[in-house]
Amino acid sequence: MSIVLLGGSPSPQSSCSRLLLHIGEKLALHGHRTARLEVRELPGPALLRADTADPELARAVALVRDADALVVATPIYKASYTGILKLFLDLLPQDGLAGKLVLPIATGGSQSHLLALDYALRPVLASMWPRSILPSIYATSEQVGQDSAAGLRLAPPIAVRVADGVDQLAAELQALAARAVARESRRTAPIAA
Ligand SMILES: Cc1cc2nc3c(=O)[nH]c(=O)nc-3n(C[C@H](O)[C@H](O)[C@H](O)COP(=O)(O)O)c2cc1C
After folding, report:
1. What distance in Å separates the CA atoms of residue 11 and residue 179, rounded to the nearest whole number?
2. Could you tell me if the CB of 2 is within 6 A of ligand 1?
3. Which residue of 30, 65, 101, 114 is 20 to 30 Å from 173, comparing CA positions?
4. Using one digit for the tens of pLDDT, what is the confidence trace for 107-131?
């Protein structure tokens, strides 16, 4: 199954992109195809004009359209998700998440806005008809450390949340794939006389 890793941080040294990448690597170990999509790498003027005819934006929207699942990552800015993430989500059609699974993740400066994903981002995602939105994963930037030698260092409670989130998404994708196979075999089965 194919999964888009959608990153909504304007920062190139992003803790939430690090977490997103880590989750993508874990999902790849389950046999899924992952594709990274960082909103900050899309053309800014086209994003501001919501110009879906722009070839790069059109490609990004098509990547989401063709995915089975999305991991949507954002830093918390002003008690909410980032403006650049909203610019991209606004390009998607009203049913742009139909049939898809979504795992929201965020990093914040403290625990103060732990619920921001649930009160701010989740309703926006839900408005685009996803199959389901999994429980959110929230970490402070300190809990997502980077070590030049050892690489990503997740605080133990976050490592547990990430493992649970990855397992749940992988299990739901597997169930989705099994349902698609069963549907296809019913469609192609010979009709008994
Ligand atoms: C403009 C701005 C606004 C922020 N507002 C909040 C906030 O309201 N609550 C919070 O917990 N952290 C806030 N932060 C801190 C970031 O959420 C935190 O540093 C995050 O881990 C950055 O993620 P990134 O490295 O992926 O960009 C803010 C940071 C910036 C730059």
Report:
1. 39
2. no
3. 114
4. 999 999 999 999 999 999 999 999 9
Joined tokens for residue 142:
């300190």
- 158 band by pLDDT with thresholds 50, 70 and 90: very high
DSSP 75-123: E-BTTB--HHHHHHHTTS-TTTTBT-EEEEEEEESSGGGTTHIIIIIHH
Partner residues linked to 3 by β-bridges: 34, 69
3-class state of residue 140 by DSSP: strand
**Cα of 38 from ligand 1 centre, angstroms:** 17
What's the confidence (pLDDT) of residue 187?
85
Question: Is residue 8 scored above 90 in pLDDT?
Answer: yes
Domains of the chain: 2-188 (3.40.50.360)
Query: What is the value of pTM for the model shown?
Result: 0.95
Helix axes 156-188, 15-29, angle to 10 degrees: 50
pLDDT tens digits for range 16-33: 999 999 999 999 999 999
Contact 176, 191 (CB under 8 A): no
Quick one: which atom of ligand 1 is closest to the CA of 78? 8
